[in-house]
Amino acid sequence: MNEVPLVVYPVGRTRLLAGALLGLWLIAALVSLGWLLAQVSDRASFIWRISLLITVLLACGFGLIFFWRAQISQRLVFDGGQWWLYGPDMTPQANHGEPVAVMLDAWGGMLLRWPGVGHGLNSQAKWLWAEATSVPSRWHLLRCALYSPANRPVAEVSGDPTQP
């Protein structure tokens, strides 16, 4: 079996993430404005539509700001068997045997889901942003560790048919 090297990679806020979040919100605002301008209707209908549109855009904007503020500078570490997350105070947090999930794999960045305690809406999962420009020399190692069989549960690797 191949040995997996130690991987240490910074995750958190970056300029690219800020630009992507702002661009996402601006695209949503432009599409919504285009939809609103394409509507031909009476004035009463127009007022509630624009009210709804502004409410939804503000809610999305606040959601993106909340996501941005949650992105603190941390270190993601894979020792070949388990993932660790070191916060700004360098206190390690283990992932309790669950793999770190790649939710979005873009060209130069990845959105990762750090497993939390609980399931569904009660989960304490964290969303982490890793960017290739943070440490270009270790980007490939991070990608290999995230996609390696060592990052999957044992039942998934062995092909156990009793597991979903």
Features:
three-stranded antiparallel sheet, 164 residues, PH-domain like, alpha+beta
Explain what the structure shows.
With 164 residues, the chain is of the alpha+beta class. It folds into 2 domains: 7-13 and 71-153, PH-domain like (Roll); 15-69. Helices cover 42% and strands 21% of the residues. The strands form 2 sheets. It has a 4-stranded antiparallel sheet. Strands 5-6-7 form a 3-stranded antiparallel sheet, covered by helices on one side. The radius of gyration is 20 Å and the shape is elongated. The two termini are 25 Å apart. Residues 154-164 have low confidence and may be disordered. Keywords: Membrane, Transmembrane, Transmembrane helix.
User: How would you state the average pLDDT, rounded?
Assistant: 79
Q: How many structurally independent domains?
A: 2
Which CATH class of the largest domain applies here?
Mainly Beta
CATH topology of the largest domain: PH-domain like
**Approximate helicity band:** 40-55%
The assigned structural class equals: alpha+beta
Number of discrete helical segments? 4
Tell me which CATH architecture of the largest domain applies here.
Answer: Roll
Largest sheet: 4 strands, antiparallel
Give the helices and strands as they follow along the chain.
EHHEEEEEEHH
Write down the Rg: 20 Å
Percentage of β-strand residues? 15-25%
State the separation between the terminal residues, measured CA to CA.
25 Å
Overall body shape = elongated
Low-confidence stretches: 154-164
Total number of beta strands: 7
The neighbouring-strand order within the major sheet is: 1-2-3-4
